[in-house]
Design brief:
CATH architecture of the largest domain: 2-Layer Sandwich
Number of helices: 6
CATH superfamily of the largest domain: Fructose-1,6-Bisphosphatase, subunit A, domain 1
Order of helices and strands: HEEHEEHEEEEEEHEHEHEE
Bound molecules: adenosine-3'-5'-diphosphate, magnesium ion
CATH topology of the largest domain: Fructose-1,6-Bisphosphatase, Chain A, domain 1
GO molecular function: 3'(2'),5'-bisphosphate nucleotidase activity; magnesium ion binding
Catalytic activity: adenosine 3',5'-bisphosphate + H2O = AMP + phosphate
Distance between the termini: 28 Å
Keywords: Cell inner membrane, Cell membrane, Hydrolase, Magnesium, Membrane, Metal-binding
Pfam families: Inositol_P
Helix content: 25-40%
Subcellular location: Cell inner membrane
Oligomer: single chain
Amino acid sequence: MNHQVLTDELEAVARSAGAAIMDFYGACPRVKLKTDGSPVTAADNAAEAIILAALAKQASHIAVISEENERSHELQAPQRFFLVDPLDGTKEFLKNDEAGAFTVNIALIEHGQPVLGVVYAPALDRLFAGTVGSGATETCKGKRRSIAVRSPPAEGPVAVASCSHRDDATERWLAENDISDTISIGSSLKFCLLACGEADIYPRFGTTMEWDTAAGHAVLRAAGGHVTTPDNKPFTYGKPDFRNGPFIAASGAG
Ligand SMILES: Nc1ncnc2c1ncn2[C@@H]1O[C@H](COP(=O)(O)O)[C@@H](OP(=O)(O)O)[C@H]1O
Ligand SMILES: [Mg+2]
């Protein structure tokens, strides 16, 4: 299937998953703690079931690595696979505040790089989609527009950073790079703010898994940005246990 057609189909899947999440939003769903200490709720599981059923129907020949399906994490990464985080920013979801910074994430990886992805923030009704080579879009309140990264403003770049998982290494990096303007926001929306020209750089030194970053990374690539390791090496997917190392996401082409 053509990548752009697949992206369009995944937008609809992400919307269905987001609608299922919103059924639980504000309703204090029961929280379980996973072995890594991170929370999971019935909303994560409901969204994942919708996405996995849709992928099994539309692209059954492609392997799926999904956050809440722990058996999938034991797979040896093939050359082509989906990465799914049905509810990224679970801590923000549970806060139930006006920021609404939680997302549904679906990405396709080919040869270690994300080639397409969708990120949907149902509480904000912002849906980002990117197909590398064809561009990126944001659909908000029924209106779709093309998006692209911006050149950093003359007064200096604006950074984005995690809200719930800030760490000393990130603070040091921001200080060393003289970046004082930082937006704290949960979930993969950080990549999307770079992709749509609302921010310029996203340094991440704390823990993330590949499903946390793949879809946002795809949207950012499609919008003209890039992600590298802090020492400027390629940031690839299909790593052991699907665990990421530190990275810098930026608006410039790399
Ligand atoms: N100590 C930790 N152990 C495991 N995962 C962590 C973690 N700290 C952060 N994460 C990951 O960071 C994601 C949230 O990123 P952010 O802080 O940018 O919102 C979480 O996604 P989930 O909410 O899907 O579990 C989780 O996968
Ligand atoms: Mg996540």
